[in-house]
Fold this protein.
Amino acid sequence: MLYSVRHKQTLSMQTSNRVRLDADVYYPDSDESFPVLLMRQPYGRSIASTVVYAHPSWYAAQGYIVVIQDVRGRGSSEGEFDLFANEIEDGYETVQWAAGLPQSSGQVGMYGFSYQGMTQLFAAAKRPPVLKTICPSMAASDLYADWAYEGGAFCYQLNLGWGIQLASETVRRQGNEEAFLTLYSAARNPPIYNPVCPRSGILEQLAPDCHYHPWLHESNPEAEYWQKRSPCTYLHEVDLPMLHIGGWFDTHLRGTIKLYQTMIAQTDLPQHLIIGPWAHLPWSRKGGAVDFGEAAHSPIDRLQIRWFDHFLKGIDTGLLEEPPITWFELGSNQWRKFDRFPTSNPQTFYLQTTGLAAMSEQEGKLTIDSPNSLLPDTLIHDPWRPVPSLGGHAAFPAGSFDRSAIDGRSDVLTYTTDPLTEALHFAGEIFVEICATADTPSFDLCAVLSEIKPNGSAFNLTQGYLRISSPATSHRIALQPVCARIAGGNSLRLSLSAACFPAYVMNPGTGTLPQNSHLIEAQVITITLKSDSEGRSQLLLPVGTAKSLPEA
């Protein structure tokens, strides 16, 4: 049943430490009681995550009281904003307050992505009894490993852009128009001047309290700063049904999957996982330069209503009779369903080379045969011309693009299969094991997996990044999980480089921390990669068949 919706109301609550939090509330135009859907966010409540979700009035029309709240220190809510530091207590109290609103049935669900996904997890951590289910989307389980850093490397471009965005809201609330205009302009073209030292002069000057500074300076993942602000620290006793939502080109996908795997291990309550062909935003049919077709349009709004109808209204929507995992398969451009998280004995593809994989895409091979390379490959990283980032999950814009021009550079190693005689399906976690050494104390490795078309175009499917500061010669790079189909006649390519700038801060080779690095000291790095009987380099791919990946 659909309802007309009343004009929104602005209601306020006071926290136990006497801070006023403001919210917009949308009511169905009816005297009935309804469950509450709550979103807590830092971007100004009128936006209400409409960059990816339907407007709150649409959710209210489905028979819900919808509450969109400004978190502490954002929008018109009182208090000081401290990234994620107050969201457990404030989230718990807000859930309890929302359950007591007029006409509330006393049952609350939460939804939202990114920061709004995190506020769900923090609210759930204290287990408010009226919170019955949540739908976290594109959130981090571990703030260090799933958001600020990847493989030990600082995620430069996205971290700086987000830091400037949040800092601009801080100075806006302070009424500092000049600082706001400066930050607003910088957000459109983040000032990335120093590729090895991501310290930001504009943020140090205009936003000394911005989270960007501790993110950069606290490089120990076990530090109290990260533990205090990571949902995984608090979720051990949480027992809630959850709908987990992710995107293959989202920078927080590894956090989405970690959270799903954590919850299925500790609760018997339903956990569903849906991953589309989307970047962080928008959730549309086009990801970068690739149109994934009609099926790629977001089904999330209707799916969430089915989820909430089941857990908040007791309506049998048939959702729990369906397999719990729904993934969009890149290439076939259709949804696949799985009874459990796809795992398999991975197919090993060895890196085979003539020693010229940096000079031509024809010289490096991916093969299932044991390698017999007589010469190693040599990769030279020049700080004057670092390999640029293009698409993927860690750059802006994100998504899939033709990277054949990048693969043609002499500081990129490429290994390509022969054209496939039949379609190749793979789904799940992907790893690259590299036997490599360098002539500097530290170096980086970026691995990109792409589909090669007969015309030579190379569209990226997934990638991973690793900062190496140890004398070990064997290195394991975790790529973003993905579900894909490579058509017969096409090929699969692994590309390796020592930079992906500005997505990640460039490694100067000195072994110094990014905040202490100086471009003048950045070194040319020579990396030697082996793929022979003594030191195998290989791609571990979770290959399946069409039968093992049933259509939705």
Remarks:
- Residues 347-544 form a domain with the Jelly Rolls fold (CATH 2.60.120.260).
- The first strand starts at residue 9 and ends at 14.
